């Protein structure tokens, strides 16, 4: 091979190998050795296929080229792993040999190192494939994301940093009822009931100027055709290609049902708490109206009750006026507005004026319809029912929606609660069901409160009756102790009074008339016991017994009894004047020790025992009509302000002779007129000695000097 051709091959970085027709190697360039298969060197005369196994199968082609039948053949991109080196690629070009135009039967194989080209080509192919894969992946990913966004039930809204909406998904349009054109390029704030929380969040994220995530932000959103929906948003920021510009991605979930369920549970808890703590139903109603309105966004709340249930009864601040208040029947019952609560934006005076004198018949207005049906009801347009009393109220206050529920005990409707909104709101069956249960709870509460008041009333009546039978300290002890109650009192004063000639008088009156007269007379005596703090013990027929100094001991027991005895004489005179009767009372008084206690377990009675009781009874039975006879023991307990004259010794059964006295009056008072009236009414019973006594008293009362009992005693004859 000439040098010129070799230089050409060297410049092209190509090597050559010349093969004889028998495929033996004739000549080769040094660079061919590194391309041979597993050979450190190439030996002239060896078969070329032993060094280049790629030639197996190409014998016919090689022979055709050697014979001159074919000009050219090539094998491209052959590879060989060089020991301790990299993989190399080469092309093999097969050419015939001719010298000066004369064909020579030899084969020239040219070797071109194409490793660099192959690496570039492979890198290009790999990059192309990767780009294609990335493009396909992106395309699939975009489709996948679009499908996810389209199919997701959650709301997706994308806005810029100013809050202008850039993108929404179908769930947003479906849930809020808007068209895409209603939302795109409009501020998100326009669709929120209150945008304060969102604006605070946006301000915070703007100051940070970085990707930010805010979770569980609850916003109330306006629906296109009215009403609100509560959405819980997770908001994240995404930096856009524009410097310092952020997009906001809102992913929201409808939590209206969950929030309303929580509100219903909270409302039930609040009402249960109110009912347990409220002092009366009036207070409970006001708090319940306020709680429901503020929790559910109603601006006005009403309580309507049937007319028999007056405000005074529901206040439960008076004693129960009727034995069974909720059994009162009316020929034509009406609903009466008992309580109204309104949000501060509505003037209370305006509300009160609108509700003046409004009553509702059965099935009139929403409350009347609820009363008639016994079920909760919802009205989405109050302006339709022009005949309803609420139509005028709705016009004045701009009310749109209302709902109400019955307050009932079992099947009995006691009243109605109604609530009103200035927004158009769709019916909420779950809320109506909850409020129906609350209505039953309220009905039971009212019945329970009334039962409690009735029980307290009966307890007071029982205690009052017990106090009419027993002294208060004894009654209190009797309620706490089961053992017999008996006490010794060292110094008391006992009074017995008896109506003189009662048997003769009773024969001229009917039993009812007689009892009525006695009741009136003894009631006046009872009032005197209360006036002087004395204890009435009992009445037996026409006899009256009272004691001073128990159950609470007192030092002036004799004085209190003396004052009552004198007032009893005045009371019977006034009674006679009123009823044109001639009743006269005989009174006996004695002071000393007694035993007092309660006896029996049925129809028990607080009674007194001892000589003091017996002597007091004898003082009455041995006395004179119209006079107050006292024992010597009582006489010594009375101060000198009383007019007292000595009667002298009288015989007392079981006691022998005893000194007794007549209590005539108080010094400084004109008791002559009283005594004269007694004399006129009883002149048939008064003895000559009594006439003489009257004259002495007359003279002594006209004397300005103090009356001394011992001087009177010395001038009187023995009246025994």
UniProtKB/TrEMBL annotation:
Signal sequence residues: none
- Family matches, as InterPro entries: A/G_cyclase (IPR001054), A/G_cyclase_CS (IPR018297), Cyclic_nucleotide_synthase (IPR050401), GAF-like_dom_sf (IPR029016), Nucleotide_cyclase (IPR029787), PAS (IPR000014), PAS-assoc_C (IPR000700), PAS-like_dom_sf (IPR035965)
**Which protein is depicted?**
Adenylate cyclase
Question: PAS domain: which residues?
Answer: 141-195
Instruction: Please name the GO terms that the record assigns under molecular function.
Output: adenylate cyclase activity; ATP binding; metal ion binding
The UniProt record lists the EC number as 4.6.1.1
Q: Which reaction does it catalyse?
A: ATP = 3',5'-cyclic AMP + diphosphate
Subcellular location(s) per record:
Membrane
Per the record's keyword annotation, is Transcription included, yes or no?
no
Tell me a GO cellular component: plasma membrane
Family matches, as NCBIfam families: sensory_box
Q: What keywords were assigned to this record?
A: ATP-binding, cAMP biosynthesis, Lyase, Magnesium, Membrane, Metal-binding, Nucleotide-binding, Transmembrane, Transmembrane helix
Query: What is the top-level taxon of the source organism?
Result: Bacteria
User: Which species is listed as the source?
Assistant: Planktothrix tepida PCC 9214
